[in-house]
């Protein structure tokens, strides 16, 4: 994949770790960080996919097998950034799964526990080990992926929604602690993004990316789907000095889904022409 047309070199000389970096949003972020001049560690369970992406990105990229439910794995990803590239400037805690689904009354707690372990505990450990190396340097950026399910009921399953809401609270708490150390902490809230995980949920086939793109596009007023590149652009911005005064913030990148909701009735149809509703049904 070619570098994005808007990519500059604003992350030149910086080093980032991306958990869940082998596919989907994570892979898009890894590519964008590399295009913007950063060196990147891809931390992911998908060894074959991670290795292929590392080869694609070249000498400035490493990969490491990482299960974010295991603290030694998360620590090792951070340590690889130090041993391979000498520093850590950007930690993108992105790894996540849709996880447990089904009625609350029928929930299998082992599935719930795993969902929380990946989606929330894994982010917690990513922040912990990033802070371990960033605090002594008094600089760095920590990012995490949340979801509209954090703020809107019925969007995600129960455990996923709880974890994604927890990420927002965790991010704000850690941002408050680390702000005096020169470390910024923010979250990104993507809408539905074309990825293997979304394709699996939407079509039952993780490889059906183009069909997924068509289905998502049909559901949006923009008539286009969200893609990993859209989230990667937000990652690049928040990781850069362009966002030097942004911390404790959740950047929503969802095509207006969370903030706008339904299509405006005042853009088309009977109410598109000027008028006013007054008392007791009177209009003018």
Your description of this structure?
By secondary structure, the protein is an alpha/beta fold. The protein has one domain (15-191, 226-281): Rossmann fold (3-Layer(aba) Sandwich), CATH 3.40.50. The protein has nine helices and seven strands. Strands 3-2-1-4-5-6-7 form a seven-stranded parallel β-sheet, sandwiched between helices. Helix 1 crosses helix 8 and helix 6 crosses helix 7. The protein starts with 14 loop residues before the first strand and ends in a 24-residue tail after the last helix.
Provide tags for this entry.
globular; alpha/beta; 7 strands; disordered N terminus; seven-stranded parallel β-sheet
Q: Any idea of the CATH topology?
A: Rossmann fold
Major sheet size, sense and barrel closure = 7 strands, parallel
Strand order of the largest sheet: 3-2-1-4-5-6-7
Overall pLDDT level: 90
Helix content: 40-55%
Structural Rg: 20 Å
Topology:
Elements: E1 15-19, H1 24-35, E2 39-44, H2 47-57, E3 61-65, H3 71-85, E4 90-93, H4 109-137, E5 140-145, H5 158-178, E6 183-190, H6 196-203, H7 209-218, H8 228-239, E7 250-253, H9 257-260
Parallel strand pairs: 1-2, 1-4, 2-3, 4-5, 5-6, 6-7
Helix pairs in contact: 1-8, 3-4, 4-5, 6-7
């Amino acid at each position: 994949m070619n570098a994005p047309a808007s990519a500059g070199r604003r992350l030149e000389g910086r080093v980032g770790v991306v958990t869940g970096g082998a596919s989907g949003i994570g892979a898009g972020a890894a590519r964008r960080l590399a295009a913007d001049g950063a060196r990147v560690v891809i931390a992911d369970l998908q060894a074959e996919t991670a290795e292929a992406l590392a080869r694609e990105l070249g000498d400035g990229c490493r990969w490491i097998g990482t299960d974010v439910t295991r603290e030694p794995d998360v620590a090792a990803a951070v340590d690889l950034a130090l041993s391979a590239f000498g520093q850590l400037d950007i930690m993108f805690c992105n790894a996540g799964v849709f996880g447990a689904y089904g009625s609350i009354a029928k929930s299998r707690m082992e599935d719930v526990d795993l969902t929380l372990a990946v989606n929330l505990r894994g982010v917690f450990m990513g922040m912990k080990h990033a802070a371990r190396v960033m605090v002594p340097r008094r600089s760095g950026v920590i990012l995490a992926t949340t979801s509209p399910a954090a703020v809107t009921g019925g969007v995600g399953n129960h455990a996923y929604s709880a974890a994604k809401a927890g990420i927002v609270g965790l991010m704000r708490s850690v941002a408050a602690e680390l702000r005096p150390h020169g470390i910024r902490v923010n979250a990104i809230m993507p809408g539905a993004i074309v990825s293997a995980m979304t394709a699996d949920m939407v079509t039952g086939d993780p490889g059906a990316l183009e069909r997924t793109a068509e289905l998502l596009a049909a559901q949006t007023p923009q008539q286009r789907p969200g893609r990993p590149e859209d989230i990667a652009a937000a990652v690049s911005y928040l990781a850069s000095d362009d966002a030097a005064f942004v911390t404790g913030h959740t950047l929503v990148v969802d095509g207006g889904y969370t903030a706008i909701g339904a299509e405006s009735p005042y853009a088309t149809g009977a109410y598109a022409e000027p008028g006013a509703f007054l008392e007791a049904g009177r209009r003018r």
